[in-house]
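Hi R.,

Here's the chain you asked about this morning:
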Amino acid sequence: MPSLAPAKAPTASQDRSFSLSGLPTRKSRRPLDGLRRPRTHSLHAAGRWARVSRKGTGSDNDDVPFHRCLASVDGCAQGGTVTHLWSWLTAVIAISCAAPVAAQPTVLVRAETRIELRTERMPNRLVLLGALRDDLGFALAGQPIHLRLDSMAPRRTLLRRTVQTDPDGAFRVEVEVGRGDHELRATYNGDRGHERAQVSRSVDLDRADVRLRVAVPNGGRLDLDQDLQEIEVQAISLLNVDGITIELVDELDRPLAAGSSNAEGRVRFEVASRDLGEPGAGRVKAMSQADGTRARAQTEVPVVRFRATELSLNSATGAVELGEPVVLTGDLGDSQGPLGDRAIGLFARADSGDDLREEHLATVLTDADGTYRAEVRLEGHGGPDNEAGGPVRLIARFESETLGREGSESAPLTVTVGGTGRGTWLWAALPLTISLFALAIIARRAPRRLTVIPPPAAPAPKGIAPSLRSSRRPADPAIAGRVVDRTRKSPIRGALVTLGELRASTGEDGAFRVDGVPPGEHLLRVSARGYSAEETIVSSPHRGEWSAITVRLESLREQILAPYRRIALALIPSSRLWEVWTNREVLAHDQEGPDQQAKPGGTGDLEHLTAKVDEGFYSKQGPSEADVLEVRAGAEERRREGSTRGRS
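And the predicted structure, written out as tokens:
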């Protein structure tokens, strides 16, 4: 084994110190331009080199010559396996003691922000209007906006104020101003999750005010698969609005189109979709320059540029044996080509009456060509009838995580899962046949037993039950559902549905639908004649949970009879008589007894309760909610008096 030269003693020109492991270190300082570079330590042991990387520690220690300390160890014992093992053991100890713990990196992602700023004129006043949004167009509520308004001649500050954005991310300030040219500036300093933003506007009060309105089709959703997008701009001013030059630009101030307004101040643009940019959230700005009599104007509207996606699902075979996997393939793309590195969910779908149930099978990623491949097993999926085989309906779904891509779903694919082979099913059925034959013999000899009929299922609880919620982005603004009787499960016609200022009524099938629900939370109230009303809080837009709700209303007739039934069951000889006797017969049976459980004339008097229940239950108009409360209070009073008498 080659020996290592003895380590040289440190010279006076070297600044050295010793760590706890006894290893010499050299401290050096280099200009790092504000960056921490990875540190690397080298060691030489038994003729081999090893490297230890120290990344992200922020230490000033540079290359540490571990071979110097190991050389003296190796030079003490020459030759033999012991020397070799001892050298490597010392190297491991040196690495363990000298290498510091790497710092955990922290990744902070900050979203871009933008300020929408415009002005409106009033007599001797200027209204500053604006909103704060992130790069996806969502409002930022409760954020401070610093406003400053300066007069250009003479130069002085007219307004310096900090305002908070409301729940919609908007803010509004009114300020008294005179004539002349002004500069308005709005600044947002950002926070831990959002970048700083600043915007400036010039306000010329010596010229006539011009306001621009931009109309974008489909509520601002621009389908990039269409060749052209029609955008209309209208100029509004107290002076003539004919011949105003208006320019359209995007959020990056890239020109889209330009034109002049007609006598009504309108100009219609046809913008090529290829000029609008990539899919995603953006802005369309309309600007007009100042002339001799009219001031400069600018406005902007949020838009979403999107492309539809197409997803396919294929299988090389339409049937597989039980226990064998099926290979599923497909493609994802849009009009511009394949979409790679996207998550595709594979599901087995089963129809169970009115419910559509899905079971997740797998999630795969598309490759660079937009294709995917997965192996799944289908036994036990697709519904209760597929535990031992049968047809299974499969779908593939792409849920987009961005505003610029729409989700898509493949056409259903049916794969049949087979059972055991023809040669073995007879042998598999033989033990079952013998067991059934033995059970039949035992059943004939066994004594007959009474058949127990289970009691009817309890009715579903009253109230408003939402439907299933999907995993897609909230997009449905409508509220719809069906109103039924809680006990009879029959539809209720003419029920009144109120949602804020919006109203609707149910039809013959008890169904209703409320369109045009504004965004936010609202109180949904459902009422019907002869029923107690139900209320709940709903939100719009939603993910489908409020698109097929079930409202179960409880009849006031049932509510007034329920407390009386509990009293009667405690008085009559058998509970079966409740279905036979009338309320008057229950009263007569109680009056024949030796003891009365309530004093006559009180609310707990059985005769008073019987008359109240018969009047409310059998009358044409039915009981009121006050009648129900009175009967409940009387039944509770009678129960308390009976409990007190029992304890005495």
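The helical segments are 66-76, 81-98, 422-445, 556-571, 583-591, 606-618, 625-647.

Let me know if you need anything else.
M.
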